[in-house]
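Hi Prof. W.,

I finally got the PLC-like phosphodiesterase prediction working! I wasn't sure whether to trim anything, so I left the full sequence exactly as given:
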Amino acid sequence: MGYGGFLTILNGSPHDFALSGQHSYQMDTWSWPTIQAGTSAKVYVEFGTKGNTGDDGGEAYYNIAGTSEKFSVLGRKPRDYQLTISLDGLSTKQSPQGSKVELGFRHDAAVNWILSTDEADQWWSNSGTTTDWMQQSLGSLGNRTLKHIALPGSHDAGMSSYKPGTVGAHFANTQAQYLDFYGQLMVGSRYFDLRPVISNGKWVSGHYSEIEGPGIWLGGNGQPILDIVKQVNDFTRQYKELVIINLSHTLDTDHDYKDLSQDQWNQLFDTLKGIENRFTVQNPGNTDFSNKVLGDFITDRASVFIVAQLPNGISLGNYANEGFYNQNNFPFYDSYSNSNKADDMENDQLSKLKAERNIVADSASRKDKFHILSWTLTQQPEDVLNFDKAIMNLGTSVYDHLFDKAFNAFTPESFPNVLYVDSLGIRDKSVVFPFDKPRSVPTTNDIAALAIAINNAKAGRNGYVTGQN
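And this is what came out:
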């Protein structure tokens, strides 16, 4: 057997990627399909093991049907395994015509080539930078409501580090993100699950769960809230993007993990008032801001929209006029699968999406509540002491299927708003033997390119969403 891996080609355009030819030398597997419009194909390739493997190579040539544009897939092993896209007759917003886009190679895993086109017939790809992808997309997204836009999201966003909490907690069962808040913003995340807790009298991110009956807790702490405030400000001073922060799972860990009092909530809001560019309106009442269009938030500025999941008896008071909102101002569907099995989670999430989203012009049939696709695996009791089943490893284990299984299940009438993941921005296991700390792994902005492709190829083909119906 040779040395194999996958290339997922995601066609986020209304044109077929038509195979016009292919050939290879000493490749054990090199066979390419035509890729239909609006679909992705995960293609297995295998380099040979016989002879001079440095000569292994293959080429596949694609014409974009109905256009004069084309690109090629190249497989080479000059020093290391490499899959490359050659933009022979095509340019994108990120890469000029003639560019060679090196995708790398992952043994028994996938690399991605994501290519989509927006309403203005501009080509987008996962090469180059998409840091300000919302601003770059305003031409097609500016008049769409938030509930009709897809964006990457960070589960347990503040848990990018680990500081000891309870007995039995460690980084493998508590840390959910590899990149800190700023790093997540830079690779494209725009929806953040932030769980503030009081620990040793300080506001920090927390990840705590009550287990084995009342009063027994497991968990630890992540980034300090003041550090997150600074990192959000560092980002929004550079980029005029929309950042949504959802506050939930708040606790006072210094006093038996009690819910926060009204005074403590007020202290939290005062701390978060350090966030600049908060989106503010006077007397918001019960306005549903997911019905507002993206251009209302970021046409000429950055906006940070902060929504708090408030327990009974807690109110915003005057903070409602200072850029803080409650759950009535941003209703959403979020139902995680509570499974550590990839197939069970994926099938559950895709079936819930199909049942809960039907974005059509007919109001009697329409279902379009802001939808969070929880593409996350949940540790079960048998996983808690298994470092190989670390939360971040579980996150990367389902990463590849976002680009084939999930994308192919999305339709113009049923697509998610948030691609909600652990380990956002990485695709390789970061927790490996000797399990003392996460290892250094490369980062990727592919999930931002995937969100762009969903906005182009799925939402962008829905006339009700684009206003063409």
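The first helix runs from residue 133 to 136. Does that look reasonable to you?

Thanks,
D.
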